[in-house]
Amino acid sequence: MSGAGVPVVEIHGALIADAFVPLLTEPALGGYQQIAYHRRGYAGSTAASGPLSVPEQAADTFALLRHLGISRAHVVGHSYGGAVALQLALDAPDSVHSLALLEPALILGSSGAEYRRSLAQAIESYHHARPAAVVDGMLEARWPAYRVGLDHALPGAFDAAVTAAGAAFEAELPGLLDWQFDATSAGRISQPVLSVVGGESASLSPRFVEAHEWLLTTLPNTEAYVLPRAHHFLQIENPSDLAAALSDFYARHPLVA
After folding, report:
1. pTM, whole model, 2 decimals?
2. Distance from CA of residue 251 to its chain's centroid?
3. Closest CA to 203 of 239, 231, 242
4. Which SS3 state, helix, strand or coil, does residue 255 take?
5. Distance CA 21, CA 36 (A)
6. Backbone angles phi, psi at 204, to 5 degrees
7. So what's the architecture of 6-252 in CATH?
8. Is 247 exposed, middle or buried (0-12, 13-18, 19+ CB in 10 A)?
9. What DSSP character marks residue 228?
10. Residue 1 confidence (pLDDT) above 90
11. What is the pLDDT of residues 81-126, one digit of tens each?
12. What distance in Å separates the CA atoms of residue 37 and residue 15, rounded to the nearest whole number?
């Protein structure tokens, strides 16, 4: 945790457990209590054994909030963590004041079939190749030439990702492939939502922009933000502009501490 004030819980995606660390020292978020935790299977958290569903991950987040005595918070979810954030808003709506979705892992639209195939192939590759090579391929596809930037922002993050690869490929991704989230589900989410897409993400895959546009047209109360100078790892690549956008969003949708 970092700071004091209105609580903001930050749910990381697959592989990079400390992805939100660059936001913790951003002045724009200085008036908030940022809660960036490690999901199951990462760092010192509870081990992940077998497929782990998105609702189970959302229940973990809810349990963390209850443990901390937090009844309601702004919630930020990146990639896989965006799926968890959406599920939390469905399962425990009173605990979620707003949602900021950083390129959530949504399998939908014309890009959905290819995305599903790529996830299944990654799981298969994990069982037949060196974990470091599979992790490298996943990260490179989402942040070209990522290694220099990642090592500078989060020293040791690549090695930690390799260590946690089992959690991603054996527990999380199978659960994501089984997750059901559609327009009917989206219609149940009434909280204000900020959908964030990287300004460079369209060059990687159509799925990032397609999911962003789907959120804007499907969730009832959604705003858009395109983060400049960023691919999929938005909060690592450009934390200062993202922090400013989040702060502005929270100011428009205030939560009394």
Report:
1. 0.96
2. 21
3. 231
4. coil
5. 7
6. -95, -50
7. 3-Layer(aba) Sandwich (3.40)
8. middle
9. T
10. no
11. 999 999 999 999 999 999 999 999 999 999 999 999 999 999 999 9
12. 13
